[in-house]
Each structure stands twice: as C-alpha cells, then as structure tokens.
Amino acid sequence: MRKTYLLVVTVLLACCSYKSYAQVPRIPEASSTQTIIQDFGLGKITITYSRPNVKERKIFGGIIPWGEVWRTGANAATVITFTEKVLIEGNSVPAGSYSLFSIPDKNDWTIILNKVVKQWGAYNYKQSEDFLRFTVKPTRVSEKRETFTMAFANSTTKSADLYLVWDHTSVKIHLQTDDDAKITANIDELMKGDRKPYYFNAIQYYYENNKDVDKALGWVYEAEKIEPKGPWYKLWESRLLLRKGDKAGAIAAAEAGIALAKASKDDEYIRLNKEALDHAKD
To answer: What's the whole-model pTM score?
Structure first.
C-alpha cells in the first residue's frame, strides 16, 4: 500500500512540476534565433544564429565597427556545422562545428571559422583558436534588409552560395562539396544490385556533373527497356545525345519523349521534352 501511495504522489508532483514549468512567463529575445539547414552533397550544413534588426541605426561602420571581430549575428556566436568535408572559397574544411565570426571592412570582409563553439558574442574570441580565415568582397544592395539574414542560394549537387545580408550590405561565401569520388563510388555500388530505383538519380548526377556520357546513356537505354512508356528517360537520352554532338539522335529522342508525355497527359514532360527539342534544333 505504501509503495502505491508513493507512486501516486510522485506522479502528481511530476505533473505539477511540468505544469508550473510550462506556465513560466517568457520574454522574447530582441534578436530572434534561427536555424537553417541545407542538404549539400552527401551531407548537410546547419547554421544557428541570432538575427538583430537595424532599428534606424547605422550598422557597418556604426554599431558594427570597421576592422573589429563580429559574432556575425547577435547573442551567442553563430555556429555552422558540416556533416561532411566541404570546400569554402577553395579552402578544405573537415566535418564538424565551428563558430562563424567575421571582420567587416569597407572593401573586404574577413570570414573566420573558429574551433571554439558555444561562445557568447566575441568577448572571449581568440585568434589562436581559428581554423580558417579568408576574405570576400561585400556588395551594396539597393533594397534594405531590416533583419540580419543568412540564406543559401544557387544550390546544386556540388556547390552553393551562402549569403549574409543586413541593411544595404550583402556578402557571398561560395561552398563546394568535396565528395564526388564518394558519390560516384556509391552509384557504382548501387548499380550492382536492383538498378531500377537508382537509374534516374544516377543518370541525372552524371549529366549535371559532366561525367561519362556513354555510361549514362547505357543506363538510359537499360531504363527505357524497363519503363518504355516513361517520357523522362527520353528527355535524358536527348540531353546526353546532344552533349555527344548527335543532334539528329537528340531530336528523335525529344520527339519520342513528347509523344510519350502526351499519351500519358504529363504536361511537365511535354514541356521539358519540347525544351530539349528546341535546344537540339539550335
């Protein structure tokens, strides 16, 4: 009986504690926190940072002095995490987490990856703990960005641009994957088994990364035997044949793709095969 009583009391106290915790008043941070995640090659890039606002202040050369280390945000220093090795502005960076600092200046920004994460601001920043420093050029943008924003753009299977934008200033950092050999090995391994689930992605990767055209075409022809009514493989056949310089073959493949797409009422592949046909006829 005593054990049952203690169990009931424990459960009631836990419920009360949870309720009390849930009802604690909160005050929002003046600079909200954001986490952005970008798939990149075989891995991901994750950035967590706080987003200050202009609030009618002079930003660069004002509250962010020229030539001084900035946390690249507000509150805690910005943290960037790579799950795979990457190239940043041509510099090799191993997988891991880094604090992202910067030194804004009128004509150049120094971007810093520091090995110490979970820092508050740049107050305890030490250059001796830097992993990497490089410079990029800032540009002036006409549209004012009230809230400091970090965003990825121009993302492909092998590269992306990270933009830092605040007020009328924009900074671009170029990133590249460093895992083509691993991806190619993965494709080769997957192609040893049931190829059907992997044909499309393998063909697309080879085409977009200018790899072996004949090998990709071989996969196209194999896939067409499995899915003879699929207009998507005719699209890749047309693109690859055009890359080889076979315009007549590219035209024939695109026309066949248009016919298949019309038969299946697939508007997207009617449009894509028509675009391939136009390119082949140029």
So the answer is: 0.74
